[in-house]
Structure formats: structure tokens, C-alpha cells
Amino acid sequence: MDDAGKRKALGDFIKTQRTQLASAELNLSGSSRRRTPGLRREEVAQLCGISVTWYTWIEQGRTVSVSTAALARIADALHLSRAKRAYLFELSGKKDPQSRDTAGQEIPDEILAITANIKTPAYLLDRHWNAVAWNRAAKTLFVGWLDQKTGSKNLLEYTYSTPSAAILISDWEQRARRLVAEFRADCGMYLDEPQIADLVTRLSANSATFKRAWSLHDVIEKEGGERRFNHPTLGQLAYRQVNLRVANRPELKLVMLLPD
């Protein structure tokens, strides 16, 4: 969907929610004498504290950009459910400032069990790309990272700061550069968070290769595909990578390496 299509979809969604919301729920005057259901644009604009003209442009898909604050006020004014509110911000391509942040919460036991019982290498990444769970096969494969009791479990930090990673990962330079572009795409909404800012600062200071890759501002969607490794004891290994997001914890990504 192009930008015009996204603006239209956003406007259509807001309009349908407006027309479906009963004015009586908001105790607005004249609600009992309405000829059409729902709220009028003027009423929603008043509730949101924005001009009627601008609100009309939003519904008509004529605005180039709508701020997160305006979207939040619209969501509140229309009494959107959590799912509808999330959909509103997804259409806009913006992060909801009041979104339920599940980062740091305990990982459900069933997710840990699934990861542990996968027969091929599998690991779970949080939104900062820290490995928070992995199975025995992944521990065996990723020497210098998941087999260590101490040390950073961040995938980027392992790739750029651990000497064994450059040996283990085939085509390390190409793969490492791509990881930076995938990380930027995946964490674009969180780049101002201290944990990510500190990670970027630290890697830029310790790795000229990372610093160059980060300065390119390249963005690539995180994909699967062939992954080859030069394991110190198992020799040459080839896998097909598959990435899955956890439905009720979208900041978690399950990465599986299936035998090629």
C-alpha cells in the first residue's frame, strides 16, 4: 500500500468508528434528535481539541502526517478498544505513546517450552535483540555466545565483538553488515531508548566495521534464508532461517534454523 492508500485507509477507519459510536455514550446534547447514527465531525474535533477542517482532512486522507498526540486524542475520543487503537497506530505507521509495553515482563512458560523443545537451533530475541531463551541445539551451535554463562547475550554485540563469531559465521562481513540494516529496521521506533543508544555507542567505539555500517542508515526487512556456519567441532553446517513473532508479545522474535 502506497502513502496515499495508507492515508485513505486511516481516514476510512476513523470515519467508520465515528459513525458507529453512539453519542448518548458521551452525554452530548441533541443526541436523541439525530437523524444519522454516530458522532458528527464537529463533535469529534471538539473532543480532540483540533480544528474541524483538519479533522475532516484526516478522514478524507488529505493530511501528509498526523502526530502521535493527535492520534491518541482521536482514539480516546472514539473510545477505541485496545485492538482498534493498536490498528489505528499501525495504519499511521507510528508508535502509540500509551501502548502496553511488555518489555521486561516474564516470558510465558509455554513460549519457553516451545523454544526448548524445538529439535533444531532456536533462540528467542527481545526487541533489543538480546537472546532471552534458547535451546540446547542453539547453545551447541553458537560458540562464544549462547554457550557462555556470562557475557552479553545481544546478537549484534556477539557478531561484532566476539572473535569466534567471525570464524563461525560464513561470509561474516556481508552477514554482519546486513544484520545492522535489519536491526535498524526492526528497532526504528526504539532507537532513542537508552539501552539501544548505549549499544550503538559502544559498538561504534569498539568496531570500525559496525560504525561504517551504522552510518549508512541502511534498512532491510529481517528475513530468513540460507545460513552457513564453520563450526569448530561440527564442521560446515547449513540451515534455512525462519523468523516468527509471538502473537501476544510482538517484541519477541523466535528464530529457528532448519536443516538445509
Automatic annotation (TrEMBL):
Superkingdom: Bacteria
Entry's Gene Ontology molecular function annotations: DNA binding
CDD domains: HTH_XRE (cd00093)
Alphabetized Pfam families for the sequence: HTH_31 (PF13560), MLTR_LBD (PF17765)
Range of residues in the leader sequence: none
Every HTH cro/C1-type domain range: 38-85
PROSITE patterns: HTH_CROC1
Name listed for the protein in its UniProt record: Helix-turn-helix domain protein
